Structure formats: C-alpha cells, structure tokens
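Final report, results section. Input specification for complex C-07:
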Amino acid sequence: MLSPSKRYKECIDELKLWAPVALDAVRLLDPNSEPNAMLERPAFDLSDVGAADKRGSGLSTGYALRRYFLALGQFVNLLDVLSELFPNRSDQFGKDLDRFVLRQEFQILGDSGERVLATLAHRSQPGHRVLSEMFLKVDDLADSLCETRRYVDFLRGTNEISQIPLSIDLLLRSPWENELRQSMDVLEYPQRKELADRMQTYLSKNYVLNSMPVSDEHTRRFHEVLLSATRVPGEKMYNIDIDGFLDQMTESDVSDNDYAEIRRTLEGLAGILSDVPFGDLSDVLGDWGGMRSFDDINIIPSVGKKGTCHNTLLATASGSGASRKGFLGIMRQVRRHLIDCFGRTRIVILLTDTWDPAKFRESRADIEAHRRRGVVFITGVVSGRSISPTPLPF
Amino acid sequence: MTTLKPPVWRGWSLAQHHEKHCVDEPDCFQDVLDSTVQVAQNEYEIASERAFQEAFIQYDAKEANRQDGGFYPMRHYRLDGRSLKTIADPETSSPRHFRSCFHVHYGKPHDPEELNKPELDQVFRYLEKLEDDRGQDMISNCKVQVADGTKSLGSRNLLQLASEINRLNDKM
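Structure output:
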C-alpha cells in the first residue's frame, strides 16, 4: 500500500495534468450549443492542429472534463480519509483542494453548465448496458468494479461544482448495484478469493478503506458495495487479543492511563489492519505522524523526523533481516530510540511476523537494562490474521 | 519511436488468431475494418501490421495471463486509435513474431459505438485500463512510450498524451 504522502502526490499530479485542460475546454464551450455537441467538440483550440486532429481524432471536451472531475473526486475522497487520519493537516488539505476547483468557470455557464455536467454523467455511466453477459469471469467483474470506482469518484468531483445531485442515485439500489452484488455471491470460492485479493490491492492503493468511510453519504454507500468485493464470506478480519497484551503489564509499575493508551493503540491497529496488510503497516503509520489513534505515541519505522519523545513506542517488524522494516533493523531502531528518549518512553509495544528467540540476542542486554529502569516491553507475534501476545524469551 | 525490426506472423499462429477474432466472432473486426463481409485471413494480417505501424502508444511489460494465472513473459504491446491491440515479441527477439491482434472491449461485449469516439479518447481510455491493471498488480515491468501514430497529432494533444504517459510511468 502507498504511504499517504505518496498517494496525496499522485492525486495532485493528476489534477495538475487535467485541470488546465478542463479549464481551456470550459472556456471554449458555447453555452447556446446542445450539451452532446459541446462534449464532442475538441478539447483544444483548433488553431494548432495536426492531421489527426482534423479528422476529429484529438481529445474531446467530454473526455477531458470526465478526467478532470475524476481526478478532483479522487482527491476529495482522499482528503476525507486523510483529514480523519491526520486532523492536524486539514487546513493544508483545504488550501490544496481550492487550487483545483473550477467552480467560478462553470458558474459562468449557468444552466448550460449544469446540463453539460448532467449529460456527461449520463454518458459516463458504467452501468448503462445489460450486465449479465459481462460477469461470467473474475476479470470482467474486476474491470467493472474498477470502472465503477472511477465513476463514483467522477460523480464526487462533479458535486464540488454542480448544484444538482447527479446520477449516483441511479446507481444506488439500481439493477446495476444488485447485479454487482449478485455476481459476487455466485462466484465459487477460488474465484471469490481471487477477486477479493485483486480488489483489496486496488482499493487500498486508491485509499478506499473499510476502516475509513468518506463523508459523502452517496459515495460512502457505493464504496461499501466496492469494499464488499474485498471480503470473502467466512474469512475473519485481523484478530488482536488485546486483553492478552494488557495482561503482560500486570507485574509492572504502570498506571490506568497506560492501560487506556495501550488499549486505544491496539484497537486503532485492528482498524487499520482491516485495510492495510501487516507488512505495509509502517508505510502508513510511519509516514506523516499525527495520525489519529497514534498521534501521542512514537512509531518505528518512520520516514519523517523523530519528533517529541512519547510515553509509548509502537514498533512493527516484518521479516527477519536488518532492513528498515526487518526484525534486526527494527530492534536497532528501538534501542536507538530508548537511548534518545531515556526516561520518557516507558512502554514499548513490539509486534513481529518473525519470531526467532536467537534474533533477540544482540538486543537482550539493552532490553534487560531498560527493564531494570522501569521500561515495559509488550510483545506479540503476527501469524496469518491473528496477533497474539508472546512474552519475550528472557 | 521507429521500429527497426517489425514482427511477422507465423502461419499457424495467424490462422489461429484469425479464427478466434474474425471467424468465431466476426462482427467485431468487420466493424473495426468497416467491412460488410467476414474479414479474411490476409486482411487480418494486413490490419495487424497496420495497427502495429500506426499505433499511438507502445510498451514492453509482463501482463497477467487472465486465463491460466501467472504472467506472460516480457512482450511488446501497442495500441492504435481504434483500440486495436497488437502483441509481439520484444524488439530484441530474433526471429520476432506477432503474438496476437484484437480489439479491446474492456470486459464487455463489442460495441460498434466505441469506434466512433475520437482516437485519442480511445487511447486515453486504454491508459486508464493500464492504471487499473497496475492497481490490481496485473501488470509489471511496464514502461509506456508514444508510438509512430502520434505524428499526426497536434502539439497540444501530443503533449497531453506524453504527460499522461509520464504520470502513468511514475506510478508503475
């Protein structure tokens, strides 16, 4: 899964590419023309044309506008998620969005602009054909779900400009939606699993997340249809034995606040893990900092500056090696942190998907020294979709 | 952009792909080539060579084998302004053969209306599909380039296509 900052940059790059084209196309629109004719005209001024443009082969206004609204909608939906995860960045998110919303340009067109958008929404619908023939294969169903995701984001983009509700209402509770759901229900287990794996990868890359619904009700409901494709009936979500982890602290000198903080952290982790594979966790948690549920703790590994030392450190190791995410690499970062934050970080949560007691050898003396000074280590092993408390082997 | 060594069809492969794309489902290629009768094998061969030469975009990649799972070996792919996709061995292969040529339908039944869309709209639509495939880990080692068919485009259309390709390559 991409880190939030990388996905943010991807969305901005797409808007930088399509907003200027949409702006030019809108300025060239003749409000007195029929909407279909407006959408079919070339997106660019014909004063600079090639042979293909003369054949009417260049980019159309309809396509350019669709891509702009798609890019805008993706960004708005992403900001919904990121504002929830990183509330301290909301102001910056709002400023970045304002740079790309062509509200005034469309308002100049008046009713004509609204008609163009409504026509464009109708023409762009993924569900205007009979679907039953399509959904015989996982591949076709996956393509269709991706196309639907693009359409839902496109509609969200038009909502930033248009005063009238566009046709997402036509999708919700429509034969299209029913057919999507039914097609998934009739798939045999191997196909259902293949679809779930592909859509989990696709939707998480696009930050359509189980744990983080967008604020717009229509979009949220349709995202739920898409997200249902990522779940295989009968398969469990991640299960964290939170009480078992808290039991590891009973012999230690910890406060009720410590218990509450550890519980909140592990519950937050369970939520994130419904969308993010454990191996990718640090890309999301350790990117910007200030993420809700994790804003008052330190995270390892982390790409940004270390910042303030907190009471609790969460370290997640994936693999056994000395890389940034590997167990040996993580333990070195943990030791460094406990030196830098001596006397301030008092609780270390260490989760790893590779449990090898021999690998603790190079850290044992440090851990025992920190323990004598009151640092509490809470450790657990990730196995499949289960995270179980596993005390240190010494 | 110039291809030094164009691919050629092997006889049995040409016959097989002509059968699949022009005989089993004749309407599609008839519409693409604007023909009133079933497209003959030599017409299919010429169409594939033309689609290859006049393609708007080209890329080498490993694409997922959607029938049998796994990935195909590294291949060279091109798409023209009618959404005709040609697949060939990479440029460095010797001998170099065509692997397939077909009209892209995006998992839906053939719709002749799609052919009425501007060529560049169709090419951009295909790039969206590549982006979706990348999002599902269904394509790897992909680097897209503009191809010779874009010579007929005006500078702004060409610039937009090149910029979109750059954006996509950054994500790949």
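Strands of chain B lie at 57-63, 75-79, 84-88, 98-103, 139-146. Residues 11-171 of chain B form one domain. This concludes the modelling results for the funded period.
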